[in-house]
């Protein structure tokens, strides 16, 4: 770890989110990085080594500098939801029921006809 990779003094850091896995925290961290917001993960090593414990240890904390906190919160709040949108649909080609959030039939790979907005 170089000095440029070290987070500022803990007193100037704020937790912007707590995630159940390193993977989820890394995804958000990547988005913050793309927006020019530097971030650091706390409890990353513990979560990686004791992944089976899950969030019992409090999860992986993603932290940013105080000066970036508001921008980071806005960016995270404006992210598309992980929840699926739309409703389940029936494939027009084979008649299979396809869960919401999928645009291609799992059975015959036909594309959904009524694409959601």
Layout of helices and strands:
Blueprint: E1 13-19, H1 22-34, E2 39-42, H2 44-49, E3 60-65, H3 69-77, E4 89-90, E5 97-98
Antiparallel strand pairs: 1-3, 2-3, 4-5
Q: Which structural class do you get from the secondary structure elements?
A: alpha+beta
Largest pleated sheet: 3 strands, antiparallel
Model regions low in confidence, pLDDT < 50 over at least 5 residues? none
User: Which percent bin holds the helix content?
Assistant: 10-25%
Order of helices and strands: EHEHEHEE
Number of helices: 3
Radius of gyration: 20 Å
Named at the architecture level, the CATH assignment of the largest domain is 2-Layer Sandwich
Describe it.
This protein is of the alpha+beta class and 117 residues long. The protein has two domains: 3-77, Alpha-Beta Plaits, CATH 3.30.70; 84-117, no CATH class. The chain has helices spanning 22-34, 44-49, 69-77; strands spanning 13-19, 39-42, 60-65, 89-90, 97-98.
């Amino acid at each position: 770890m170089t000095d440029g990779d070290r987070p500022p003094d803990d007193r100037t850091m704020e937790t912007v989110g707590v995630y159940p896995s390193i993977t989820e925290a890394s995804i958000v961290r990547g988005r913050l990085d793309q927006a020019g917001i530097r971030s650091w993960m706390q409890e990353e090593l513990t979560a990686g080594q004791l992944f089976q414990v899950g969030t019992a240890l409090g999860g992986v904390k993603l932290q940013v500098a105080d000066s970036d906190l508001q921008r980071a919160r806005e960016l995270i709040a404006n992210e598309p939801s992980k929840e699926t949108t739309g409703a389940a649909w029936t494939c027009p080609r084979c008649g299979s029921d396809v869960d919401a959030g999928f645009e291609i039939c799992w059975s015959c790979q036909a594309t959904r006809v009524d694409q959601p907005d």
